[in-house]
């Protein structure tokens, strides 16, 4: 990336030098009423501006992205630099062609004012992009739910956000459907955004529910569910729960958080529902839930005298 940038800067220098040589050594001629010398100089200076802008983008972008902390930061940096250098290059090229720098800036202001009314939705999407870059409701790599759409963010450009869909009408259980969802960035200004994997704490609370009969030894069932969940996710949960507590400490919310899995009991009409609660990364949520449920069910089936299922009741 930077090598191409250096070559472009060298090309810009060559074009700039060539424009000076044209004025000194080329005889003035007229081409259809226009000065051939002036056209050549304008073309060479315009090429120098374009190459210099592109080369600077490549060099600066390569230097910054190499030092970015993650792929997410590199993606955001590329978008910001692309917009900034694109605007600079456009203004520079128009200034060279028209030879009226102040007129170009004034014209861009007038055009921008007119575009505000003519292209409101794209403008709102661009404002939404700026909001996303500044406030970070989500970024590339996050799993989010926006309006009726849910998926993993794979691209955030100036106007739209692209998701790899999960769930949807084709599949369930937080599995990818294979479809691509494109949303205008303006939705962040008017809709709820649910982020399941923010960079500061990429974990969510999850539950596995098991229904048992009233004749069940509830103490045994609860201890078994806690033990199984602890074997599957307990150590990872304990390592990461401190990060959750740190985030809570930054807010006025007072909440007691357990370091290991816990079980909640809910009384239903014809059975008792036990829910084991734990934290897990959202992309491993279904796999973890399957492992925990299968092991709990095996443990319960191995102890039929202590755990009863409500098979004879309406469920």
The end-to-end distance, rounded to whole angstroms, is 62 Å
Mean pLDDT: 81
Biggest sheet details: 5 strands, antiparallel
Give the overall silhouette. Answer: elongated
Helix content: 40-55%
How much strand? 15-25%
Low-pLDDT windows of residues: none
The secondary-structure element order is: HEEHHHHEEEEEEHEEH
Specify the structural class: alpha+beta
Query: Strands of the largest sheet, in order across it?
Result: 6-5-4-3-7
Number of helices: 7
Number of strands: 10
The radius of gyration over CA amounts to 30 Å
Would you mind describing this structure in some detail?
The model has no long low-confidence stretch (mean pLDDT 81). The strands form three sheets. The chain has a five-stranded antiparallel sheet with strand order 6-5-4-3-7. Helix 1 (2-25) packs antiparallel against helix 2 and helix 3 packs across helix 4. The N and C termini lie far apart (62 Å). The chain has helices at residues 2-25, 36-66, 71-98, 101-118, 120-135, 218-249, 285-301; strands spanning 30-31, 34-35, 143-146, 149-156, 160-166, 176-184, 193-195, 204-212, 262-267, 272-280. The chain is elongated. It is built from seven helices and ten strands. With 315 residues, it is α+β, with helices and mostly antiparallel strands. Helices cover 53% and strands 19% of the residues.
